[in-house]
Specification:
289 residues, 3-stranded antiparallel beta sheet, DNA recombination, DNA binding, Integrase_SAM-like_N, hpI Integrase, Chain A
């Protein structure tokens, strides 16, 4: 239902299913799920908070619950929607966490070696940071989506929306090396299709595989691994571009944000970084009581 009507991603659908299974386990039976009262739902979500669930997780579970009962009412499986009394929780707008530029530089430099996996891993880091792509967008990229003549990559974003992003000089160098005889061709098998990034068995690399690579490379390079995951490079790309003077609408287009409000979160990060740098380096910024 979610796939057909709402166009949700597989990951979102999996999360919604998990939310509804948890509610079912709490209530004990499908009959109880159909007959639950609004008060009982209130109690359930209060319990989730007491168990230490993040507010964002509780908000998503409430959204899953409301969508589920709206569906039941629309299909005439229940007469009354017990979720109507649930509050619509406001989500706290926490600032995205960007990696320092020095950390990214150290991570890239730390990927030494000329094996196919070394070449691939350097390219992955350059791709994530250089394009600001979501990890799913990068992993869904096909070889034919890379145009090194025009210096563009075609990405498939949320809602199956395509966009073209520019290829920078460092990423272009990494892609040429990876697409050369010592890179992807050493990983591909007769069964490998046109997916750009492959694992060592010639199959498409997974999100989990990317994060494992990043953590392993961080440890080998002596880089702090806390907060190091694929999505952090997307945050870092946007934050560093804005900090270096990029127009916010250019960053919006690069990241594939449908709303400028989403991109504006990164201006807060850039200002926070600017203030920290100012206070630590300007001779008149500190030291006064």
């Amino acid at each position: 239902m979610l796939t057909v009507v709402d166009g949700r991603s597989p990951l979102t659908i999996t999360s919604y299913e998990s939310d509804l299974r948890s509610l079912l386990e709490h209530l004990g039976s499908e009959d109880a799920l159909l007959a639950v009262s609004g008060t009982r739902l209130d109690s359930y979500f209060a319990q989730l908070r007491l168990m230490g669930r993040k507010s964002s997780s509780v908000a998503r579970a409430m959204s899953s619950c409301r969508g589920f009962y709206r569906f039941l009412v629309d299909e005439h499986l229940v007469e009354v929607d017990p979720s109507t009394r649930l509050p619509v929780p406001g989500r706290a707008q926490s600032l995205p966490k960007a990696l320092p530029e020095t950390t990214i530089d150290a991570l890239i430099i730390g990927v030494q070696g000329n094996s196919a996996l070394d070449i691939r891993d350097r390219m992955i880091i350059e791709f994530l940071y250089g394009t600001g792509a979501r990890v799913t967008e990068m992993l869904g990229t096909e070889v034919q989506d890379v145009d090194l003549d025009e210096m563009l990559i075609r990405l498939m974003g949320k809602g199956s929306k395509q966009r073209l992003v520019p290829i920078g000089r460092q990423l272009a160098q990494s892609l040429r090396e990876y697409l050369g005889p010592d890179g992807r061709k050493q990983l591909a098998t007769a069964q490998s299709k046109s997916r750009l990034i492959l694992n060592q068995r010639g199959n498409p690399l997974t999100r989990h595989g990317v994060n494992e690579i990043l953590l392993r490379r961080a440890r080998a390079s002596g880089v702090e691994a806390a907060g190091l995951h694929a999505h952090a490079f997307r945050h870092s790309c946007a934050t560093h571009m804005i900090a270096h003077g990029a127009d916010i609408r250019v960053v919006q287009e690069l990241l594939g944000h449908s709303s400028i409000a989403t991109t504006q979160r990164y201006t807060g990060v850039a200002l926070t970084t600017l203030r920290t740098a100012y206070e630590s380096s300007h001779p008149r910024a500190s030291g006064l009581s």
